Automatic annotation (TrEMBL):
Keyword Signal: yes
Gene this chain is encoded by: tolB
GO cellular component: periplasmic space
Subunit structure as annotated in this protein's UniProt entry: The Tol-Pal system is composed of five core proteins: the inner membrane proteins TolA, TolQ and TolR, the periplasmic protein TolB and the outer membrane protein Pal. They form a network linking the inner and outer membranes and the peptidoglycan layer.
Organism, as annotated: Undibacterium piscinae
Subcellular location, record wording: Periplasm
SUPFAM superfamilies (UniProt xref): TolB, N-terminal domain, Tricorn protease N-terminal domain
Family, similarity comment: Belongs to the TolB family.
Name of the featured protein: Tol-Pal system protein TolB
GO process terms (BP): cell division; protein import
Gene3D superfamilies: TolB, C-terminal domain (2.120.10.30), TolB, N-terminal domain (3.40.50.10070)
């Protein structure tokens, strides 16, 4: 999908820089050849694929040093002797309508067989997307989990007095601006179909919840009630948002239709209830409450009702995020003065600290559930970090000038 309604970013501070450390529990040795005639395309497809696979932490790249087409005869024994268990080959052709047709094959050198082969025709502007989709296919065939390289990120940058809601590819490339304001922007959240982002803007000198269409740039006010309007989170079918409002006194949780109508209150407590998040199946809402004396995470039916406390380790647990499969809860916990990212296996109750930084906030799962992105601080500047759910693979994303915060990982796109 092309987000034609967004503004392209220029300027040195715009580009995200990605650094990777750590590797998966086991790395699969793979060779990615240069694609035949790929120099005619605006970007080198094979290089983008290699960068994606490396960034995942689950692949070890074997040097190829040459061009191999998907139609070339391959000596499987030779590649096996060089340590490659898989080989990626392909070609690029320019079609009469100006699009580029990228053809690729994934070969199993151990079994001397073809694991996958696809052809993708796309515009010059979507060359990177084509490469990401091929990397997704490789990841899925070899790891057994759907790849998320072709997904998008949204986040907020601050440079001087300017706040910008930006959207980028999962590798930090293709940065575009959705909204600019001189007042803070917080809590962006992707719609399930990836065409809209809900967020809180302070442009009216108070927090107001908006939904913005990324294609048309149209903005809709979802909640502008007395007091604070905050923490939007989409229902899985995109029909509703859960929000936090202080319109009746203490902050409580409500739901509202995606067009701002049909407000319904879900919690009625003597404490503060906020930061709602729907489970992927839509049955539950996880949220933050201080009803037990300190901030902890609870779960209730998505229609409201009795709530069950979920977190018990530590006296301060905030910002719940539930994994796509509903099995893992990610959150920020304050312990010994450090704000760090933790995960909780909901079945076993086993908790794991995933970050080694000390000022973490705003976790967000990748749509395949394999990674968690979060905001942190380094050298008094906000940066983004990504960690695999097992804690082994770590990435750091920074911008050259200013802060970057409030990340949210977009959904799979059709």
């Amino acid at each position: 999908m092309v987000f034609s309604g967004l503004l392209a970013v220029t300027g040195a501070h715009a580009q995200l820089r990605v650094e990777v450390s750590g590797v998966g529990s086991s790395q699969l040795p793979i060779a990615v050849a240069m694609f035949a005639d790929e120099s005619i395309a605006p970007q080198q497809v094979s290089a983008i694929i290699k960068d994606d696979l490396l960034r995942s932490g689950y692949f070890k790249l074997i040097e190829v040093g040459g061009v191999i087409s998907e139609t070339s005869a391959v000596n499987f024994g030779d590649w096996k002797s060089r340590g490659a268990e898989a080989l990626v080959v392909g070609s690029v052709q320019k079609l009469s309508d100006g699009r580029f047709d990228v053809r690729y094959k994934l070969l199993d050198t151990i079994k001397s067989s073809t694991l996958s082969g696809i052809s993708l025709a796309n515009t010059a502007a979507n060359t990177r997307l084509t490469a990401h989709r091929i990397a997704d296919d490789i990841y899925e065939k070899l790891i057994g989990v759907r790849g998320a390289f072709s997904t998008r990120l949204a986040y907020v940058t601050k440079a001087g007095s300017s706040y910008r809601l930006e959207v980028a590819d999962a590798d930090g490339e293709g940065v575009q601006v959705a909204f600019i304001s001189n007042e803070p922007i917080i809590s962006p959240a992707w719609s399930p179909d990836g065409t809209k982002v809900a967020y809180v803007s302070f442009e009216a000198k108070k927090p107001v919840v908006y939904v913005q269409n990324l294609i048309t740039r149209e903005r809709t006010v979802i909640a502008n009630y007395k007091g604070s309007n905050s923490a939007p989170a989409w229902s899985p079918d995109g029909s509703k948002l859960a929000i936090s409002l202080s319109r009746d006194g203490l902050t409580q949780i409500y739901t509202v239709n995606a067009n701002g109508s049909g407000l319904q209150r879900l919690t009625t407590t003597s404490g503060i209830d906020t930061e709602p998040q729907f489970s992927a199946d839509g049955q539950y809402i996880y949220f933050l409450s201080d009803r037990s004396g300190g901030p902890q995470i609870y779960r209730m039916s998505s229609g409201g009702g009795d709530a069950k406390r979920i977190t018990f380790s530590g006296s301060y647990n905030i910002t719940p995020r539930i994994s796509p499969d509903g099995k893992t809860l990610a959150y920020i916990s304050r312990r010994e003065g450090k704000f760090q990212l933790y995960s909780l296996d909901l079945a076993s109750g086993q908790e794991q600290r995933l970050s080694d930084t000390t000022k973490d906030e705003s976790p967000s799962f990748s749509p395949n559930g394999r990674y968690i992105m979060y905001a942190t601080e380094s050298g008094r500047r906000g940066s983004l970090a990504v960690v695999s759910v097992d804690g082994r693979v770590k990435q750091k994303l920074t911008v050259q000038a200013g802060d970057i915060r409030e990340p949210t990982w977009g959904p799979f796109m059709k």
